[in-house]
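User: I want to check something. If I give you two sequences, will you return the structure for each one separately, not as a complex?

Assistant: Yes, each is folded on its own. Here is the first sequence with its structure:
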Amino acid sequence: MNKEKALEKLQERIEALKTLRVAEASDPEFKKWRRDTEIALERIFGQDTRHTRDFKGVSFTPSAFNMNDPDPAFARALRSGIASAEALIRSMAEEIQEYWDEAGDSATETRSAATTTSNRVFVVHGHNEAIRETTARLLEKLGLEPVILHEQPNKGRTIIEKFIDYADVAFAVVLLTADDVGGKSVDSLRSRARQNVMLELGFFLGRIGRDHVAALYEEGVEIPSDYDGVLFVPLDPTGGWRFLLARELKAAGLSVDFNKIA
């Protein structure tokens, strides 16, 4: 897509946003605008680029709300999300205006290729170091680059700042190991993954999509019930999980040689 057409498409999405008269993100008209905008960004910048991930990362719903709030939290979150989305789209338009040549296509292809050929895989883990290391070494054997947060330099950043900086990856492997226990009551306690692991699972589902996330779990660990469509692979003692994980990595577009799996 050339520069002029790309700018025109972004302006159309902004104008369409201004005409919306919705109260919540669940409104069909808003859902249509959001989907149409995602498609436009993919056509302009390519699939799974920083631009599309930034847009998908905009929240239009509250993380918590009070039923007695006179200004409903869902409406307030929607207004905030719409303002953020408009600012983000305007920033993308300014980027195109400033850095694209008139043809535009060559620049877009270069950016898209750089993203789709990434071999970085984020490893989300708990306290089980053995499983973490086994997973990381498997990724290395497959020619991929495992990203383990605590192995990266801090550079004076907070944990969340560091996490965001290293979350620009092609895939995420989430290790659900028996590090905590929880349940509705003392009589119903079950083994479960650490809360930060579940938080990061949700983060990557939103950032790179469920087809770029795989969760490996130990036997007996509680599996979350509200993550339909996410692949949960049991860490079986025979090692079959290695082939299942490699298959998902390959399906996500990463270069994987099955012959390298021992």
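And separately, the second sequence with its own structure:
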Amino acid sequence: MMKCRPLAARLVAGALSLALASSLAPRDNLRAREMAAGDSPSSSDIPSSSDIKVTAPIAGKTPAANAPIPALLAPLAPRSLILAGTLAGTRLVAVGERGHILLSDDNGHSWRQVPAPANATLTGVRFIDAKQGWAVGHDATILHTTDGGESWTLQNFAPDWEQPLMDVLFDDADHGIAVGAYGLFLETADGGKTWTKRRITDDDLHLNAIFATGGDTRMVVGEAGGVYTSPDKGRTWTKRALPYEGSLFSGVAVDDRAVVVFGLQGHAFRSTDGGQNWQTIDTGTKAGLMGGVATPDGHVVLVGALGTVLSSSDGGASFKLTYRPDRLALADAVRGADGTLVLLGDEGPKLVGALP
């Protein structure tokens, strides 16, 4: 049976915008999958075997029918659906629907769009310094920049896979990992010139986010309460037990030990031992939680559907719930170089100012 593309972008179906719906084929309903999910083993060491080396099918090597179409430069791009952001030196970089890439050099006060070689929805972006970064998204798109986001090259574009990428993480200029739908896990050791397909799960559940939790430890979260940790920058992985079988959309590392993961219907969990044990967080909301950010002093902000904003001043142990007056759905949060908070989601970036 042919796979249908899922509602990617770490979103509950329809939670952020109907704009995504028109670009996605139907899939087996995410909530139905969760309800049908059986018991999972509490933990399992999953070897990095059966690796498949793939050379990035970039434009020019891709059949004409599947060749990427460059993103259109649109005056209203800063008001479009923006799904992820990060800091590149002192510059903010944000990505979203239709391949939109936005830059801000004044801590989120103003934004400008830059060209992108593909118009696929972008769902994740990370930089290793002020110049070099990667963005990923639908059609297994991987973009790379070496000039702080001013220009981007296409490293991977594979619509025939029907597996959107959800997130990306690089340790340095060479080693990186991208994760996505149906267990898609890509790894590179040469800065993205080639990618290796791997399996870290024995099923096809979506992998929605990857992030560092201190030192060489990495964490991936996804469907059916999936939490996977690696002590060696992704070489080996262990599945962790979580008191929850629904979807997790993302997570934030508070410090070298404490981490908060979150997802569907306001569910959130905190671990202070690297993911071995988890405590349920009372968020006070049933809204899907999509993204967040943590500061070095222990402040944590989570955002989600219905303009949900959860703020914590105690490392994620407890949260204060507020809703934005506009009730526009939020997908991510990022801090500017001056510490100000910027929320990303429906109708583009929103400058908040100081952490709530």
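Because they were folded independently, the notes below concern the second chain alone. DSSP finds two helices and 29 strands in the chain. The two ends are 48 Å apart (CA to CA).
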